[in-house]
C-alpha cells in the first residue's frame, strides 16, 4: 500500500493508498468542567453500608436497599397562628391553626403585646379567649398570635395533649447506562492521538455520562402517583429520580434585578427557619449570575496589589455573606443553558445524601458486546438517587435573577 505524502486538498485517497498524517499527541476536550455536584460527594471507607466520611461538609453516600429510597424528618408544630377574623374575644382561625390551640393555652398578640388564655373551642374554628392582665386581649384580622405555653390550675388533672408524627418522604433510584462500542479493527488507530482510540472514546463517554447524571440530580422529577412511568409504545416502565430543584422547599424571586440588598436581606429571610445559621451553603449558578455578583464587589473598580502575581484590575469573591448564612458561589454549566441562566439553587451539602442501589454505584461494566460480535462494548452504569436529609426545606431555588 502506498503512503501519500503530497498535499491533499480533498481527503479522498484511493483504495490502495493511505494518507500520511501528523497529529498532535493530545486532543483538547471542549467539554465544560461541570461535575461540581459529584465532586461534593464524600469519599471514604464503606462499612456495613455506612460511609466513614473522609472530610466534613460533603454529600454523604448511602446504600439503598430498594429502588424506593425513604427518609423521615420532623417539622415542629408552629408556635404562631394567624387570625382570620375576630369579634371581641371570639377569634376565628383557619382549620390548621385551630388545631394548634388547646384549652388553657396562653397566647400573645405580637401587634399590641396583649395576652389571652384559651377558655373554649367552639365550632367553625372559633376560639374564645379570656384576657390576662389589665389590658384587654385585642385582636383583629391578620394579627399574629404567639404561643406562650399553657397555664393549669393547682392539682390539675388530664392535661391536653398535642403531638405531631415525623414526616415520611422518598425518592426513586434511576438506572443510568452509557454504552460505547467500537469494531475490533478500529480499536487501535495509529493515525489518532495516543494511538488508542478505544481508550479515548471510553473516557469521553464517562465525561458525557457524568454531565447527564448531574442534570438528573439537579432537575429530574419522579413519577407522580407510583414508582414508575410507563412508556406505552415501548411497553416498559422506568424509574426516575426527583432532582434538587424539585425538592427545594424554599424559593426566592429576585424580580429581574439581583441586588446586594436583596441578597443580604430578602434572600436570607426566605431561607427556611429550620436551617442552621452557622451552616455554610453552596449556590450553583451560571456565569451570568456570578458576573452580576462580582459587579457588587467591583462597584468601585480598583487595582489589587499581589506580591506574586503583580497587579490585577478588579476584585474576586467566591463567598458572600447574608444576614443569615455564608454562601459560596459555584458556577455550574447547567445554569449556563438557555432558560436556566437566570436561576440558581442554594443548598447545604451536609443535608443531602447520594444514594445508590446496593452493589450498583456508578461503575464501568466491561465486555457487554454480543459474543459473536467482532467488536468491543463497555458501559458506565449505576442506579442512583439523591435524598435530602431535611425533606428539602433547607434547599432554596432562586429565579428571575435578570
Write a structural description.
With 402 residues, this protein is mainly β. The chain has 2 domains: 33-75 and 164-402, phage-related protein like fold, CATH 3.90.1690; 80-150, Elongation Factor Tu (Ef-tu), domain 3 (Beta Barrel), CATH 2.40.30. It has 5 helices and 27 strands. It has helices at residues 95-98, 197-219, 244-247, 260-270, 287-297, and strands at 2-4, 17-19, 44-47, 50-53, 60-64, 68-73, 80-87, 90-93, 105-109, 115-122, 126-132, 144-150, 167-172, 174-183, 229-231, 236-238, 250-253, 281-285, 303-306, 310-313, 319-321, 326-331, 344-347, 352-357, 363-365, 375-388, 396-399. The strands form 8 sheets. The protein has a 6-stranded antiparallel barrel with strand order 7-8-11-10-9-12. It has a 6-stranded mixed β-sheet with strand order 17-27-23-18-22-21. The protein is elongated. The N and C termini lie far apart (62 Å). 22% of the residues are buried.
CATH fold-level topology of the largest domain: phage-related protein like fold
Query: What low-confidence regions span 5 or more consecutive residues with pLDDT below 50?
Result: 49-54
Give the helix/strand class: mainly beta
Q: In CATH's first tier, which class of the largest domain applies?
A: Alpha Beta
Summed over residues and divided by their number, the pLDDT gives a mean of 85
Spatial order of the strands in the main sheet? 7-8-11-10-9-12
Total number of β-strand segments?
Answer: 27
Q: Strand portion, in percent?
A: 35-45%
The geometry reads as elongated
The level of helicity is 10-25%
- Total helices: the number is 5
The major sheet is characterized as:
6 strands, antiparallel, barrel
Rg computed from alpha carbons, rounded to a whole number of angstroms: 30 Å
The CA-CA distance between the termini, in Å, is 62 Å
Q: Which second-level CATH architecture of the largest domain applies?
A: Alpha-Beta Complex
- Total number of domains: 2
Amino acid at each position: 500500500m502506498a503512503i501519500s505524502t503530497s498535499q491533499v486538498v480533498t481527503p479522498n485517497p484511493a483504495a490502495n493508498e493511505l494518507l500520511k498524517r501528523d497529529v498532535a499527541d493530545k486532543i483538547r476536550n471542549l467539554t465544560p468542567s461541570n461535575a461540581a455536584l459529584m465532586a461534593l460527594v464524600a469519599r471514604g471507607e464503606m462499612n456495613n453500608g455506612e460511609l466513614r466520611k473522609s472530610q466534613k461538609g460533603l454529600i454523604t453516600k448511602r446504600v439503598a436497599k430498594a429502588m424506593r429510597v425513604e427518609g423521615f424528618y420532623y417539622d415542629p408544630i408552629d408556635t404562631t397562628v394567624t387570625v382570620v377574623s375576630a369579634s371581641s374575644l371570639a377569634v376565628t382561625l383557619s382549620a390548621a391553626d385551630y388545631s394548634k390551640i388547646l384549652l388553657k393555652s396562653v397566647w400573645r398578640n405580637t401587634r399590641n403585646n396583649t395576652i389571652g388564655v384559651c377558655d373554649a373551642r367552639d365550632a367553625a374554628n372559633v376560639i374564645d379567649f379570656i384576657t390576662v392582665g389589665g389590658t384587654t386581649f385585642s385582636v383583629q384580622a391578620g394579627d399574629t398570635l404567639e404561643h406562650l405555653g399553657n397555664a393549669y390550675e393547682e392539682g390539675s388533672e388530664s392535661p391536653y395533649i398535642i403531638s405531631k408524627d415525623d414526616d415520611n418522604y422518598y425518592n426513586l433510584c434511576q438506572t443510568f447506562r452509557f454504552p460505547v462500542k467500537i469494531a475490533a479493527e478500529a480499536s487501535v488507530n495509529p493515525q489518532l492521538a495516543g494511538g488508542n482510540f478505544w481508550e479515548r472514546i471510553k473516557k469521553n463517554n464517562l465525561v458525557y455520562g457524568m454531565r447527564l447524571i448531574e442534570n438528573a440530580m439537579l432537575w429530574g422529577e419522579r413519577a407522580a402517583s407510583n414508582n414508575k412511568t410507563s412508556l406505552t409504545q415501548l411497553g416498559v416502565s422506568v424509574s426516575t429520580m426527583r432532582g434538587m430543584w424539585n425538592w427545594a422547599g424554599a424559593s426566592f424571586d429576585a424580580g429581574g434585578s439581583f441586588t446586594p440588598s436583596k441578597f443580604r436581606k430578602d434572600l436570607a429571610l426566605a431561607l427556611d427557619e429550620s436551617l442552621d445559621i452557622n451552616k455554610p451553603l453552596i449556590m450553583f449558578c451560571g456565569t451570568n449570575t456570578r458576573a452580576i455578583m462580582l459587579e457588587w464587589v467591583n462597584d468601585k473598580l480598583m487595582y489589587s496589589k499581589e506580591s506574586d502575581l503583580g497587579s490585577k484590575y478588579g476584585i474576586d469573591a467566591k463567598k458572600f455573606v447574608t444576614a443569615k448564612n455564608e454562601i459560596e458561589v459555584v458556577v455550574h454549566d447547567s445554569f449556563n443553558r438557555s432558560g436556566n441562566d437566570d436561576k440558581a439553587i442554594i443548598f447545604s451539602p451536609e443535608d443531602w445524601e447520594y444514594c445508590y442501589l446496593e452493589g450498583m454505584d456508578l461503575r464501568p461494566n466491561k465486555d457487554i458486546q454480543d459474543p459473536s460480535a467482532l467488536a468491543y462494548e463497555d458501559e458506565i452504569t449505576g442506579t442512583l438517587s439523591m435524598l435530602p436529609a431535611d425533606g428539602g426545606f433547607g434547599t432554596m431555588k432562586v429565579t428571575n435573577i435578570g
